[in-house]
Amino acid sequence: MRTVGVEEELLLVDPESGEPQARAAAVLARAAREGAGQDVFEKELHDEQMEFATHPQSAMTDLGAEIVRCRRDAARHAEGLGGAVVALATSPLPVSPTITMNSRYRWMAREFGLPTQVQLVCGCHVHVSVESDEEGVAVLDRMRPWLSILRALSANSPFWQGRDSLYASYRSQVWDMWPMAGPTDVFGSAERYHRCVENLIATGVVRDEGMIYFDARLSQRYPTVEIRVADVCLHPDTAVLVAALARGLVETAAREWRAGVEPLGHSAGLLRLATWRAARSGMSENLVDPSTMRPRPAAEVIHALLDHVGEALADHGDADLAHAAVAELMGRGNGARVQREVMERTGSLREVVTACVRHTQA
């Protein structure tokens, strides 16, 4: 059974005002002093955020338990310094982020200017194990059209600098300011994938392989495919759903490759429009159907994904979990809907943040 790991980025905020706090270094130091977090928590681009990574898991129940534990540990370390953590993909309140000053981030700030300064955004990255680079690239080629649906399910960033962006996932719009981000064309082989990466680095625009910000890529550190389209999810159970569907997509694509099924030939340009639509609309209105590249009601597209990966979900024991989680998500709404409902009820972005602090550990 393929293992799955999740990386989540969290915002550090003041529990009273809801404003982001530049406290990552202090929180990580506190975790280290307590003898916890050395292999779990890491700093990120800005000092107002931190990241954790789960261990590889085979069972989704174990993955969900670890996500909840890591979120609670992060919250405990932040609370010890008078702060809080929240699983929001952007800050609803205005913020001037503080760049973490190591050599890598200084280089990025110098080369990319303002886009580096504003990238206080939090994502959820899912790692799914693969047997080889060749299998991994075959998977990348075949699951490309379906990734936009994961963005819609996870969308959790409607507010930006104190305003409603009119997007469900404005994080993705900020993230796409990077010139190396977004969907890819079909590679066809591991050799062509690696040649593409080498050519990107050779331009001098990209410093190293770690800055290849494709929507999905081969991990440079682990024998995995890394899927990077999702916002950090407000609720832990949504993160587990995204992970289960990601594993289903990887397994389904690998089976298609072994059966000689060719990838759909949609261009990267078409896929960019599909991911934009998912960011704009989330789970409401239409999404772009992965097979036809035509608009279709979001609920139908989401259930088409469940059908597409249905055999793999069943074989992993994830089918009941995935169907129940989708039903729950459609009823409750993704993070973007929850945030807007709090804003409509209270008229306060501060209340949006404080409510979401509670949801983060629910």
From TrEMBL:
It holds the Pfam family GCS2. One of its GO terms (biological process) is modified amino acid biosynthetic process. The keyword ATP-binding applies. Its EC number is 6.3.2.2. Keywords: ATP-binding, Ligase, Nucleotide-binding. It catalyses: L-cysteine + L-glutamate + ATP = gamma-L-glutamyl-L-cysteine + ADP + phosphate + H(+). It comes from the Bacteria. It is an enzyme of class 6 (ligase). Gene3D superfamilies: 3.30.590.20. One of its GO terms (molecular function) is ATP binding. Belongs to the glutamate--cysteine ligase type 2 family. YbdK subfamily. ATP-dependent carboxylate-amine ligase which exhibits weak glutamate--cysteine ligase activity. NCBIfam families: gshA_cyan_rel, PRK13517.1-1. This is Putative glutamate--cysteine ligase 2. It comes from Streptomyces phaeolivaceus. The lineage of its organism: Bacteria, Bacillati, Actinomycetota, Actinomycetes, Kitasatosporales.
